[in-house]
Amino acid sequence: MRYKITIEYNGSKFLGWQKQKYSIYSIQETIENAVFNFTGEKIVLYCGGRTDAGVHALGQVAHFDIQQAVEPYRIRNATNYHLKSTDIAIINAEIVNETFHARFSAKKRHYEYRIINRYAPVVLEAGYVWQIFKPLNVEIMCEAAKYLLGKHNFSSFRSKYCQSKNPVKTIDNIEIIQNKDHLYIRISALSFLHNQVRIIIGTLVEFGRNSIDPNQMLKILTHCERNYAGITAPAHGLYLVGIDY
Amino acid sequence: MRYKITIEYNGSKFLGWQKQKYSIYSIQETIENAVFNFTGEKIVLYCGGRTDAGVHALGQVAHFDIQQAVEPYRIRNATNYHLKSTDIAIINAEIVNETFHARFSAKKRHYEYRIINRYAPVVLEAGYVWQIFKPLNVEIMCEAAKYLLGKHNFSSFRSKYCQSKNPVKTIDNIEIIQNKDHLYIRISALSFLHNQVRIIIGTLVEFGRNSIDPNQMLKILTHCERNYAGITAPAHGLYLVGIDY
């Protein structure tokens, strides 16, 4: 039986999604162990979007196979029981057929990046947003973001450790929502390069901080070199919101 | 000089706004001490909405007087410095004239109550929302809420310890915003009875949980007795959003 699960997690205390050789603090291994604890079966969990250390998820999706047939609500509840106090929760579980693959069947990944733009310290959302002290020019950020829409070579926006063979990606949507001192930047694409979202955010913040002419974004794109783009925004402001299949 | 300050706090670890005889864990005393630490003046802080233990604030307002004249941005920064690691932050400080009183000049108080309605455990917002496991009938809650709008005797919706002489209050606005499994209930009025917002929320949740006929709300109002209304919703879902002057 193949199960698709939807997962929420607070990434703060984890080294990221992926199982590590020398650490047990991966989200993948924590859930694999929880499922083993009530099924007695060793599973391998495949996810739709491998998140880095510190990145949160509202709607990560993964799948796994087990021999026995268990009601989906029992998969959810029993896994949650064994995940108690781990900062991970299974929001939903369902049976899918064997052609479904959390990674390869995904049609679109949705990320959100949360910024708080003020000088006063952050209390209620500490650890869940990136605080920018200097006032941001949001209009310029919106203009600059438009250059990233569509199909481009995103070499300037990928980590030096990115293993992807093809740096060409298509961004379907990028929007900036402002609510008082909060900015929510939403980005959707079929897939992303390593750190692509966080480098895009770091670059947009640089435009907003220093009121850089938005059309400079075109130059950054065409240079195809990592050091032309801005910093990699911190992980704790990033949320994997959901994945479409 | 009179200063008006706007304050954000995480109420979880405090016994509430008001200074206590046998405890130092009040928000009022914590801020009074912070101001004393850099001005050397003992102040008395008056707030616009005394919040109970565990209640959070996004925009509490308070005022205090000191002899010396300090630039407002210094009031904000120096107080924040001395509030470090207390879960309280001064968002804004400004000079006001002596006719301004945080409590008596207030024209409207805005509260928001946050509910998450799902069976799966809450991870990212644990401690910041009230989790209701059973699906809520939100339509019924919206209908029932309408009966509370306007001027009523709210005796059914006040704590047995409420010291207000007059139980008649006017609710100017009450709206329920649904976003997936989240409910945000916003309530505004010139002033509230003790626990009024939390009892209103507890009662609305009872309507939504058990699909009670919305017009039963009228009966609860007219009975004017606390035990006709629902439970007092937990403090940790409640936010003092702001105060109009």
UniProtKB/TrEMBL annotation, chains A, B:
Record bears the keyword Cell cycle: no
One GO MF term attached to the UniProt entry: RNA binding
Pfam families per the UniProt record, alphabetical: PseudoU_synth_1
Record EC number: 5.4.99.12
One annotated GO biological process: tRNA pseudouridine synthesis
Entry binding sites for substrate: Y111
Keyword Ribosomal protein tagged: no
Annotated Pseudouridine synthase I TruA alpha/beta domain residues: 7-104, 144-245
Name of the top EC class for this enzyme: isomerase
Active site: D52
UniProt keyword terms in alphabetical order: Isomerase, tRNA processing
Lineage: superkingdom: Bacteria
Gene3D superfamilies referenced in this protein's UniProt entry, alphabetically: Pseudouridine synthase I, catalytic domain, C-terminal subdomain (3.30.70.660), Pseudouridine synthase I, catalytic domain, N-terminal subdomain (3.30.70.580)
Catalytic activity: uridine(38/39/40) in tRNA = pseudouridine(38/39/40) in tRNA
Family recorded in the similarity comment: Belongs to the tRNA pseudouridine synthase TruA family.
PANTHER family: PSEUDOURIDYLATE SYNTHASE, TRNA PSEUDOURIDINE SYNTHASE-LIKE 1
Quaternary structure, from the entry: Homodimer.
Protein function: Formation of pseudouridine at positions 38, 39 and 40 in the anticodon stem and loop of transfer RNAs.
NCBIfam families according to UniProt: hisT_truA
Protein name as it appears in the record: tRNA pseudouridine synthase A
Native species: Wolbachia pipientis
